[in-house]
Amino acid sequence: MDESLLSRQNEPSSYTVMNVKPVSYICGWCGKENEFKSKDELRCIGCGYRIFYKKRLAEGMQYEAR
């Protein structure tokens, strides 16, 4: 086999997602906090509802408008 093909098999693919951190969302029906990764199905663990609200950041964000 070609050595260039063998060396490519050990390299990480550009399509693999490394160090994905789960994001916290709040269920729109029951208010339970859920954590999802990018490929997870969006469904509440408690009630099965599919509408979520993203949690607010602890620190405020400021934008400069011109």
Strand content: 15-25%
Q: Fill in the CATH topology of the domain at 20-55.
A: Rubrerythrin, domain 2
Order of strands in the sheet with most strands: 2-1-3
Shape: extended
Family: Belongs to the archaeal Rpo12/eukaryotic RPC10 RNA polymerase subunit family.
Pfam family, one: Zn_ribbon_RPAB4
InterPro entries: RNAP_P/RPABC4 (IPR006591), RPABC4 (IPR039747), RPABC4/Spt4 (IPR029040)
GO molecular function: DNA binding; DNA-directed RNA polymerase activity; zinc ion binding
What does this entry show, briefly?
The chain has 66 residues and is of the alpha+beta class. It has one helix spanning 3-9; strands at 23-27, 33-36, 52-54.
Task: Give an overview of the whole structure.
This protein has a domain at 20-55: Single Sheet (Rubrerythrin, domain 2). The chain contains one helix and three strands. Strands 2-1-3 form a three-stranded antiparallel sheet, with no helix packed on it. With 66 residues, it is an alpha+beta fold. Belongs to the archaeal Rpo12/eukaryotic RPC10 RNA polymerase subunit family. It is found in: Nucleus. Keywords: Metal-binding, Nucleus, Zinc. Its main location: nucleus. This is DNA-directed RNA polymerases I, II, and III subunit RPABC4.
